[in-house]
Amino acid sequence: MKSMTGFGRGEARQGDTTWVVECSSVNRKQLEVSINLPRDLNDLETQIRNQVAAVCSRGRVNVSVRGDRPTAEDAMPRLDEAVAARYLADLRAMSARLGISADLSLSELIRLPGVLVNEARETLAEEIWPVVQLALTASLDQFIAMRKAEGDNLCEEIEMRLSTIESLAAKIAEKAPSVPEHQRAVLRQRLEQAGLPLPLDDERLLKEIALFADRTDISEEISRAASHLKQFRSYLSSGEPVGRSLDFLVQEFFREFNTMGSKCNNAEIAHHVVSAKTELEKIREQIQNVE
User: Is the predicted pLDDT of residue 74 greater than 60, yes or no?
Assistant: First the structure.
């Protein structure tokens, strides 16, 4: 089981440039991948997204890619005079045709597309992908390891709470059969206090107790709760993403304990039900961060 939060950092070097990739994530119901790339590496977004999706199924994953380059002379942009001359000739020709001023400063000219060329980056996306991929892989390895470690901690805490719920369910199961007998005593006491005593074998009393026993029978709910516990532990030991399944199972758990509480008119059982639901609520909070 993995958590949806994690962080990883990877580096790879090509020549004088060190490429750094950082991956971090927070919980989300679906997978969202946000990628921050240098402008000249935008073509790599699909490859990066696919590699992240191959190892993550839920969460918002932020991927940051940057290259630490030296500030050398060959890293400086070059002025393409041929392109600038064509711009200038075309603009002057248009000026003559339209009869407008052809004033154009050098600072305005070099801002036109293609006039300033960074030759070192023209084919960077294709050439740099193998190096970026190495850094990304290292980052994801660290990222997944952290997710697994946190997932192990979550699993340990959830298992502890499941054991508490299992113990409470056992107490409820032990107490449930005595509820009808308790109700019989309560009915006899009320009848006696009202001056209407009935023998223990009176048909009306027996019928009322039988109806009450049927209405308060929670054997099915106890059985389903035990099945949910078994299924929950099976999910915890699974190597697959189980966050959605656990979320659904917790809802089913709540349904069983709510029914137990509403069926059994017994203070002790009600106390155990409240305690179990408290533990379930804590589990539900934890699994919001499970992939």
Answer: no
- Confidence check: pLDDT of 214 > 90: no
Task: Answer yes or no: CATH 1.20.140 is held by domain 149-287.
Answer: yes
pLDDT at residue 198, rounded to an integer: 59
Domain 6-72+122-147 fold: Ribosomal Protein S5; domain 2 (3.30.230)
Closest listed residue to residue 280, CA positions, set 260, 245, 251: 251
Predicted confidence band of residue 184 (pLDDT cuts 50, 70, 90): low
Does the pTM of the predicted model rise above 0.85? no
Comparing C-alpha atoms, which of 246, 253, 242, 220 is closest to residue 291?
A: 242
Mean pLDDT of 142-146: 96
18 forms bridges with which residues in the sheet?
Answer: 13, 68
What pLDDT digit, counting tens, does each position of 237-271 carry?
888 889 999 999 999 999 999 998 888 778 888 99
